[in-house]
Each structure stands twice: as structure tokens, then as C-alpha cells.
Amino acid sequence: MAGPTGTPARTGARSFGIDIGGSGVKGAPVDLDTGALAGERVRLATPQPSTPDAVAKVVAEIIGSFGWDGPIGVTVPAVVTHGVTRTAANIDPSWIGAEAEALLRETTGRDATVVNDADAAGYAEARFGAARDHSGIVLVTTLGTGIGTAMIVGGRLIPNTELGHIEIDGEDAEHRASDAARDREDLSWEKWAKRLQRYYRTLENLFWPDLFVVGGGVSKKADKFLPLLDLRTPIVPAALRNEAGIVGAAMLASGGPARPA
Fold first, then answer.
1. What's the predicted TM-score (pTM) here?
2. 72-76 and 14-20 beta bridge pairing
3. Does CATH number 3.30.1510.10 belong to domain 14-119+243-253?
4. Domains 14-119+243-253 and 134-238 in one fold
5. What is the helix (H) or strand (E) element at residue 198, kind and residue range?
6. Residues 175-186: tens digit of each pLDDT
7. What is the 3-state secondary structure (H, E, C) of 14-44?
8. Fewest C-beta in 10 Å: which of 138, 201, 234, 242?
9. Is omega for the bond preceding 49 within 30 degrees of 0, making it cis?
10. Within a 10 A sphere around the Cβ of 173, how many other Cβ atoms?
């Protein structure tokens, strides 16, 4: 299997990543030396309602299909602190306040590390994707239903930044600048780019990053809007696409230096 840069993947240390989304739960083992999936990805539908108990059973089914008996990393669309999910986006509200890590350990019988989905994807981009081995401050933003963010400083993840929710001109930033807002308001690329300009300029002035990486499905059309932005910070599209969450979750579960508390 080829690695993220197209080079042949070599067998090395492995971990297992699970990416929980509103419509699907995806998982695969990951080669930690290359960032490549070490097996064919399995995707099952997210149960409805997507309660913690129901989703945990799907996670157990996926890892069971591989016969995996080691630690697992699991992403959720939520703020996660000390193994507890504090918010819920596109999943059942019963995740708020759930002891997610304890539940997954009990249900799967494996050691589990639960992380925010944007954090996992962002860390994967910093290690193997568009910000590979970058030593400075990297801000990864995912433009979709909302705006997810990940901050990596000197290769270390600063978890749960939630910068899609900063207030700009009296509004939650993602309400105006997400890809969903573009679609909802039928904005042209030029009009949407003006909103993105305001958003990214605000992040620049607050954090002085060395690099922006833009993910989310719309990043496939980055040539339509990134050239319209006038920023002092380099801004590039994400590279790992739909595998980023799985790869990042597996890496953070491996107990490396960026594993969040």
C-alpha cells in the first residue's frame, strides 16, 4: 500500500484509528512510520440515534473485524477533556458529559484514547500531510458544516482550540464563513472568499501562525478560493483527505509526545 506521498509503505509500528462522523464510522490500522493505512478501511453507518452506547458497539464491531487487540484511537465531533466529551456536533446530545474513554474501554476491551476529530485530522496533516515536519505554528482549519480547527506548535498538538467559534463582527465565525454558509446563502467563490479573508486575517492577528492548512470536502476546490485570499501567512489545502482522522487518531493513541491530556 502506498504512503501519503505516493512512496511504498514499509511495515513498522502500528496503531488503530477510528473516525466517528455523523453518517459513518470508519476505521483501519495505521503504519505509524509512514502514515499509510495498514489495511483496507472499514466503514459502517453511524447508528441512529447515535448514542454513546450504540456508537461504541459499532466501534467494537470494526476493530473486531480486524482481530485487533491493541490500543485504539477514536475521534469524535466534540470537545474532549480527560476522556470526557464536553460537547456534541452532528451526533446525539447524550455525548455531552459522557465518559467516552471509559465506555469505549469497557465495550471494546481495548485501551482507548478519545480525541476531537479536527485535532486528529490536523495532527495527521502536520506529521504526514500538507504541514509535514513543520517546526512552527500550524493552524489547520476544516471548512464544512462548521469550522473545525487544530493548532500544532513545534509538532505538539494544543487540543480543543475550537477557533471556528470565535466572535467576529458580533457573530460566531462559522455561521458566516463555513462551507455550509456558502451553500446555504448561495455565495459565489468571490463573496465567500471575502468572509474567509476576514476570518483568516483575524486568526493571523491573534496567533501569528507560520502556516494555514485548509481541509474539509471543499478543499478539493481550493483553486477556486485560496488564490482570492490576501494573507501574510502561507495557506495550502490539506493532503490526507478522508484518511486524516483515522491516521491522527491512531498516532495520538500510540502515546507519542502530542497525545493530549
1. 0.90
2. parallel
3. no
4. yes
5. helix 189-207
6. 999 999 999 999
7. EEEEEEECCCEEEEEEEECCCCCECCCCEEE
8. 234
9. yes
10. 23
Q: Which residues does residue 30 pair with via DSSP β-bridges, in sequence order?
A: 15, 37
In sequence order, what DSSP letters do the residues of 199-239 get, joined into one string? HHHHHHHHH--SEEEEESGGGGGHHHHGGG---SS-EEE-S
For residue 104, what is its C-alpha cell?
A: 469505549
Closest listed residue to residue 82, CA positions, set 120, 113, 123: 113
* C-alpha distances out from residue 244 to 64, 102, 147, Å: 22, 24, 16
C-alpha cell at 42: 472499514
pLDDT tens for each residue of 209-260? 999 999 999 999 999 999 999 999 999 999 998 899 999 999 999 875 454 4
Cβ-based neighbours of 119, under 8 Å, separated by 6 or more: 75, 150, 157, 159, 160, 248, 252, 260
The torsion defined by the Cα of 32, 86, 214 and 231, in degrees rounded to 10, comes to -130
Q: Indicate the domain borders of the chain.
A: 14-119+243-253, 134-238
Q: Which three cell numbers stand for residue 64?
A: 473486531
Architecture of the domain defined by 134-238: 2-Layer Sandwich (3.30)
**What is the 8-class DSSP label of residue 46?**
P
Amino acid identity at 101: E
Closest alpha carbon to 75 in 16, 35, 138: 16
Contact 92, 79 (CB under 8 A): no
Q: At a CB cut-off of 8 Å and minimum separation 6, what does 255 contact?
A: 71
Nearest to 234 by CA among 219, 214, 206, 212: 212
